[in-house]
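Per reviewer request, we include the raw input and output of the structure prediction for the construct analysed in the revised manuscript.
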Amino acid sequence: MLRLTPILLAILTAVVMYQMSSWRLKRQLDAQSTPLDEPRLRALAKRMAKALDLPDLNVHVYEIPIINGLAAPDGRIFVTRGFLDKMKLGEISEEEVASVIAHELGHVALGHSRRRMIDFSGQNVIRVILTLLLARFIPVIGAHIADFIAKLLGSRLSRQDEYEADAYAAALLTRAGIGVRPQINLFRKLEKMAPAGGMPAWMLSHPKPQERIAAIERLASRWGSNPLTPLPKN
């Protein structure tokens, strides 16, 4: 039992840290968000809700200037004010912002928030086990190697979630008659706005835009559609 104590403590610590982080995020979102009130975006959200047989989508605006989307652990969907500012300037279309909403909805529908808590706990356990093992042979840098491997695993799992949410969004946008062209166009624009730099792909928490575009194009091709044109409504 004593041998398992560090592992159990690692799991408990990870769960507590995740719950505290979720609690802080909820408070921050409650204080800094407003309901989405852009008429065109609301209409697109309604179309996606109808495709899912839902009355509406619970979308809010996170009042921060950066460009991002967010799926909160409680199921709410957020797009940032930075995204809407770009939309008002004509740099991003309403359909492209709608693709962000569809992507974040994918995270909710696929249970990624819960999975991330499990993944985070698993990474913490791996970090503890590797640290204990490596410390016997390389005491000084063993902990750093263990931390690097745990982060590497976390990045890979995160990229998997992003691909899954992209696929969900592509299917939803197609079913809603919006098509995947806005999704593809947005990735091309985001690549120019926020390039990944020289970081290796296997260390990124999100796949590179070109890799995501290629995956969406493969899906559209499999569905027998042209990814560069919107599909007709069902």
